[in-house]
Amino acid sequence: MNTALIVIILLVVAFGLFYLSQKNAQEVLSPEGFKEKMKNESGTIIDVRTADEYKQGHLKQADHNFDVISGEFQQQLDKLDKNETYFLYCRSGNRSGKAAHIMNKKGFENVYNVGGFQDLAKAGFETE
Amino acid sequence: MILSWIGALLVGLSLGLLGSGGSILTVPVLIYLADEPEKVAIAESLGIVGAISFAGFIPYALKKQVHWRSVILFGLPGMAGTYGGAIIAGYVTGTFQLLLFALVMIVAAVMMFRDNKERIHIDGEPKVTHAWWKIIIEGLAVGILTGLVGVGGGFLIVPALVLLGGLPMSLAVGTSLLIIALKSFSGFYKYVEVLAELDMSMNWELILVFSLIGAVGSLVGKKVSSKISNKKLKKGFAVFLILMGGYISYMNI
Predict the structure, then answer these.
(1) A56–B95: do the CB atoms touch at under 8 Å?
(2) Which family does it belong to (chain B) (predicted)?
(3) Domains identified in chain A and CATH numbers
């Protein structure tokens, strides 16, 4: 086996896994769908990344920054109204998927995972 | 989660096949497949690399292929350095750490690519013994760097043991595995505190399962390694690491 072939195999495997991991972030609402929904009904946007990531750039419309991997996420949810609509995003859509799952379990019914921050920014959502 | 486990298996396989250097993939797998934030991924990587290295060390320990004086001489400064690196990690951004990681990855890859000579030649002739203070300073510096970027640093330690410590290759592998385990755990221990202060927490289940799969993968890789042309594999892997390092830098600048 020559070196070039090894490199190609490694790259294909790496990008294949990366692609699947992006796709796996289940039931993501597309940026367009998100825009539509925001027009018709009001909703709260939550950035579930770390405070550090939030500081480096976030959606202008974001209402909260509740870090899903911090221990406090559950308590922070207690402050929210369960009948409201919520839109969650993170870096890739994976953590917001987890966060949506947690919120569903807690009794929130209208929770949407709207995916990754970069994708939203690209789709025209204002950032700051 | 399944993708993270596949990633863990690949990390273990490359570790077993290539020796040092394979574990460097742990950080990108944790960030891009398990979707952990940079800082958490780097901390978790230290725990995982420590656990896999320790598992790899056990067979050498049973054969008593450990040079305890080197463990103390290289290990203690390394532990102090990694601990220090974890402290510094509390004051810098995750993006900075990840960029530093990409740089280390490229350096490791270049070292791997150029490594053509058969190291076994050095076996049995411990000639160069450097001043002890140089070894300590190097251990500290490498420790701080590896603590900041979450790698074991085996690619730096094995040559250092052979060249600086004058250790025969047969002893160097087991000894370096123990040193990597000790310093990784030292940094990991501090990270638990550092992350708690930053309101982040590690995914312990991920660390545990990743370590187990990685350890099994490295055993399999080691068994297979005798049947595969190691040089070409190493070169291919090195080029792959350089491309990955470039991609990670590009994504974060």
Answers:
(1) yes
(2) Belongs to the 4-toluene sulfonate uptake permease (TSUP) (TC 2.A.102) family.
(3) 27-122 (3.40.250.10)
